[in-house]
């Protein structure tokens, strides 16, 4: 498929921004798929910081990383991503190459523990502070669950306020699906 799915495109963008020794953040570790992807990309000298408020998500992610032998290059926080600016070591600020968000609920988990605009938007702003010039923020947004449409609109409105001289912000969105498919917001820090 030439036109990949939003989640796959998010990974390709984050992966392209990373290299050996890079710093990366997974803001919603969930089942740990993106965390594992980032851990592979940063190499043995890099570091990934992961956040989730659900203990099951952190536990599933930890076992996935351990099974792959990559747990040593990941720091997992059982905390909200809105705390990322203070949770990361001060020397990481302005040096992170990629931050990934995958919003909504944990597949196979508690569907009421969704991400919410009140914490998502401050976390997105914090993520931009952490990024290095040339770094990328990817946000996979789900509008189909209760509360999802509001969050999707809030993320769009937030992105529209970003200063054009400092950020390039693009939306990648399926347009002819019958249901409410996820879409991707990608933001590159240019200055
Ligand atoms: N919808 C995606 C998966 C999203 S997982 C899919 O279908 O693949 C979203 C994760 O965000 C969940 O594990 C949930 O626990 C987590 N989450 C919710 N609020 C959060 C917060 N404030 N900080 C960090 N993680 C949060």
Describe the 3D structure.
The structure is a single chain. The chain is α/β, with parallel strands linked by helices and 191 residues long. It has a single domain (6-189), classed as Vaccinia Virus protein VP39 (Rossmann fold, 3-Layer(aba) Sandwich), CATH 3.40.50.150. It has helices at 6-17, 33-42, 55-67, 84-87, 117-130, 148-160, and strands at 23-26, 47-51, 74-77, 96-102, 131-141, 167-172, 183-189. The chain has a seven-stranded mixed sheet with strand order 3-2-1-4-5-7-6, with helices on both faces. Helix 2 links the parallel strand 1 and strand 2. The termini are far apart. The mean pLDDT is 97. Residues 28, 30, 51-54, 57, 80-82, 102, 104-107, 113, 115, 119, 142 line the site of S-adenosyl-L-homocysteine.
In short:
The protein has 191 residues and is of the alpha/beta class. Helices cover 35% and strands 23% of the residues.
Radius of gyration: 15 Å
Look at the helices and sheets and give the structural class: alpha/beta
Return the average pLDDT rounded to an integer.
97
Present as ligands are: S-adenosyl-L-homocysteine
Which percent band covers the strand fraction? 15-25%
């Amino acid at each position: 498929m030439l036109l990949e799915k939003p989640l796959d495109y998010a990974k390709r963008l984050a992966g392209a921004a990373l290299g050996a020794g890079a710093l990366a953040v997974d803001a919603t570790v969930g089942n740990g798929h993106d965390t594992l992807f980032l851990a592979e990309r940063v190499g043995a000298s890099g570091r990934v910081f992961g956040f989730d408020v659900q203990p099951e998500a952190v536990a599933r992610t930890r076992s996935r990383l351990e099974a792959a032998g990559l747990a040593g290059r990941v720091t997992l926080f059982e905390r909200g991503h809105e705390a990322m600016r203070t949770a990361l070591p001060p020397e990481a600020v302005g040096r992170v190459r990629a931050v990934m968000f995958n919003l909504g609920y944990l597949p196979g988990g508690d569907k009421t523990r969704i991400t919410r605009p009140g914490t998502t938007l401050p976390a997105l702003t914090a993520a931009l502070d952490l990024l290095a010039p040339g770094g990328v923020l990817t946000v996979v947004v789900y509008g189909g669950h209760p509360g999802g449409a509001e969050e999707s609109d809030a993320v769009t409105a937030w992105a529209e306020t970003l200063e054009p001289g400092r950020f390039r912000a693009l939306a990648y969105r399926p347009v002819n699906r019958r249901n409410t498919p996820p879409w991707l917001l990608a933001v590159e820090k240019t200055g």
